[in-house]
Design goal:
This protein has 230 residues and is α+β, with helices and mostly antiparallel strands. It contains five helices and twelve strands. The chain is 25% helix and 26% strand. Strand 1 and strand 2 (10-13) form a beta hairpin. The longest helix has 14 residues, at 46-59.
Length: 230
């Protein structure tokens, strides 16, 4: 993890960082987040991540005005302060701080946390993994990048216990949706296949970029339903 993070207006060493126990992200997972790759000190697909962040905030009616330029400056400062060449920026916005209550006050001030993870993430060498499948037990609005990730965590652990690298989700009809922290692609008969966003899956940034790239190369692609047996 990073040595220095940005928490509610302050760049602060992690061991000194404090977050209120009444932050709604603790009680209700009432928060959204983005994980942004960093390569050679540069934020990868920044614009696309910001658009998805704005969409998540809007869906949950979190009253945070996204200043793209200022937010980028803060993220770049975290990269510099942590001397990070490659890794991940974690950007977290909660609804705010309030005594535990399912209803929220419209005057709440959202809380912003930015942290970093220093690690190599662009090793493009193929690495086969085993998969398990399970019913998709997430809430029906999984297309929102909220911090409500307990089903993902439980099923990821189930995969690990069985010696697998990932768990693939299936809906009530047996059609694949996505995985615990991955969008799903299938190559069949020289065709690139992925479930449609209408399946209520998270609109992955890498997913979009792969499809855009396939179109540029005139690679036949399809966005459709497919089952485990396919």
């Amino acid at each position: 993890m990073s040595k220095i993070s940005f928490i509610n207006g302050q760049y602060i060493e992690n061991y000194k960082a404090k977050i209120s126990i009444n932050d709604r992200s603790f009680h209700f997972a009432d928060a959204v987040y983005e994980v942004i790759a960093v390569f050679e000190k540069k934020l990868v697909f920044w614009k696309e991540h910001l658009e998805r962040l704005k969409s998540s905030l809007k869906h949950l009616d979190i009253n945070y005005l996204v200043d793209s330029k200022l937010l980028k400056i803060k993220c770049e400062e975290i990269i510099e302060r942590n001397d990070m060449e490659e890794g991940l920026i974690y950007l977290h916005i909660s609804r705010g701080i309030q005594n535990r209550n399912h209803d929220w006050s419209n005057s709440l001030k959202p809380c912003l946390v930015i942290s970093a993870i220093n690690k190599g993430i662009f090793n493009l060498k193929e690495k086969p993994i085993s998969l398990i499948t399970n019913e998709d037990i997430r809430w029906k609005r999984a297309y929102i990048k909220s911090t409500s990730l307990l089903p993902n965590v439980i099923l990821k652990k189930q995969a690990v216990k069985k010696g697998a690298g990932e768990c693939v989700f299936k809906d009530n009809y047996g059609f694949i949706t996505e995985a615990t922290h991955s969008n799903i692609f299938l190559i069949k008969n020289k065709c690139l296949i992925t479930p449609p966003l209408e399946k209520k899956i998270l609109p992955g940034i890498t997913r979009k970029k792969i499809l855009d790239f396939a179109k540029e190369l005139n690679i036949k692609n399809s966005i459709k339903k497919f089952k485990e047996k396919d």
